[in-house]
Specification:
By secondary structure, the protein is mostly helical. It has a domain of 32 residues. The chain is flat and about 90 Å long.
Amino acid sequence: MKRKWIILAMLLIVPAMLFSVSCAKKAVTTQPTTDAADEAARQAELARQRALEEERLAAERAAAEAEAMARELAAAKERFFK
């Protein structure tokens, strides 16, 4: 009988605790306004990141092309020396 009371209490207490936490009053914070200098710095950083990404993609493309050429060369050598 004691076990049934414990289970019943848990079935009532645990959801009540979860509900009270999820419905707690949440504080609303505002983001600080950015001025022109901050906006210019952010734009410069985005441009720098874009340039780095383009450079990385170009390097990946070049590596893929070199790998494809090496495979073609190996296949040509294999056909030539057979």
